[in-house]
Amino acid sequence: MERTHQLELFPNYNVTLLLFRHVKNAAALRKKAMEGSLEGALINPAMIVDPFQILVAANKAVHLQQIDKMKTRTLYAEIIFNLSPNNNISDAFKKFGISDSDTAVLIVLLDSYKTVNLEDIASQVEGQQVSLDELPHLTDTARVKKIYKVTPQEEKISTLLDSVVCRMSTKDVL
Amino acid sequence: GIPAPAVYFVDYVTNSIYLEDIVDSVTVQDHIYSVQRSGNDTSSLQDLAEKMGELLARMHDEDIIHGDLTTANLLLRPPVEKLDLVLIDFGLSFISGLPEDKGVDLYVLEKAFISTHPDTEVMFKALLKSYAATSKKSGPVIKKLDEVRLRGRK
């Protein structure tokens, strides 16, 4: 049900994605993540077009952590920040992190040398774990286009995923 | 709105850019070679030239100068019949609204065309025609192209 990908550029890192629907305790989960008692990135699945988007964010986060140039304080916070098309950290959390009223949550786990306990994380969610195949149903395409400012011109020649990823990977140059 | 490989990751430490791989693509250069070799000429290459002209017009209208236009820097996504072009290799690119820069951009392509692909003058003519029809600012650019052509003959 969950999906694990190895990062091509950092092969000892594995990214695992878990998707939950009908979640009742988003507020509690968010609190736990902020306190540090839940090791994972809690992401709003409506803003995610494809798991590749998460991989690009995770790849950049790991890279920056290794050269000690993260903009946020933790790897998981950095993943959420990297999803944003701009450089405002709190804005990134508001838009890409989960809010207390959310009923769908995408949890991203990153492990390298120490393995992550999936059951432990999953047991803390009061909701139903579903397959990543359901992610496209949860994507709010209109909102994604608005947040990432994808123009109709662009849509004609590219995929939404490519438009999103380009903005994520080049935001520090612009 | 210009088709080019997506940027996936920029590594400022090693100064590398990780781009999308356009799988099973063929360069326009290789495509022209194979069409000329097989003998199925005119119509498909004319259509290709028109598409190229349109793409370059759109690029120049955004004031993007490629800087190294050759048929090896234009890819065709599979299936080739769709004439789905992708521009690559922006290592020499810059932004400019000057007709002179756009004219030179086209001149570089013309020279590359004629030296790499014999008997393609007609094709390039079709490219320019389509460029002029698509671009809103083509008049001064074509004028400059003519001037640069004259300069080049010295």
From TrEMBL, chain A:
Q: Which UniProt keywords apply?
A: Cytoplasm, Nucleus, tRNA processing
Which segments cross the bilayer? none
Concerning InterPro entries, the annotation shows: CGI121/TPRKB, CGI121/TPRKB_sf
Highest taxon above the source species: Eukaryota
Cellular component, GO, one term: EKC/KEOPS complex
Location of this chain's protein in the cell? Cytoplasm, Cytosol; Nucleus
Q: Which GO terms describe its biological process?
A: tRNA threonylcarbamoyladenosine modification
Q: What is its main location?
A: cytoplasm
Q: Which PANTHER family match?
A: CGI-121 FAMILY MEMBER (PTHR15840), EKC_KEOPS COMPLEX SUBUNIT TPRKB (PTHR15840:SF10)
What family does the entry list?
Answer: Belongs to the CGI121/TPRKB family.
Report what the protein is called: EKC/KEOPS complex subunit TPRKB
UniProtKB/TrEMBL annotation, chain B:
Annotated Protein kinase domain residues: 1-154
Q: Is tRNA processing there in the keyword field?
A: yes
Question: So which domain of life are we looking at?
Answer: Eukaryota
Q: Name one Pfam family in it.
A: Kdo
Q: Which reaction does it catalyse?
A: L-seryl-[protein] + ATP = O-phospho-L-seryl-[protein] + ADP + H(+); L-threonyl-[protein] + ATP = O-phospho-L-threonyl-[protein] + ADP + H(+)
Which Gene3D superfamilies does the annotation name?
Transferase(Phosphotransferase) domain 1
Q: Which InterPro entries match?
A: Kinase-like_dom_sf, Prot_kinase_dom, Tyr_kinase_AS
Q: Mind listing the UniProt keywords for this protein, alphabetically?
A: ATP-binding, Kinase, Nucleotide-binding, Transferase, tRNA processing
EC identifiers of the protein: 2.7.11.1
- Any one biological process term the GO annotation gives: tRNA processing
Q: Which GO terms describe its molecular function?
A: ATP binding; protein serine/threonine kinase activity
SUPFAM superfamilies with a match to the protein in the record: Protein kinase-like (PK-like)
GO CC, one annotated term? EKC/KEOPS complex
The record's comment on protein family reads: Belongs to the protein kinase superfamily. BUD32 family.
What protein name applies here? non-specific serine/threonine protein kinase
Organism equals Manacus vitellinus
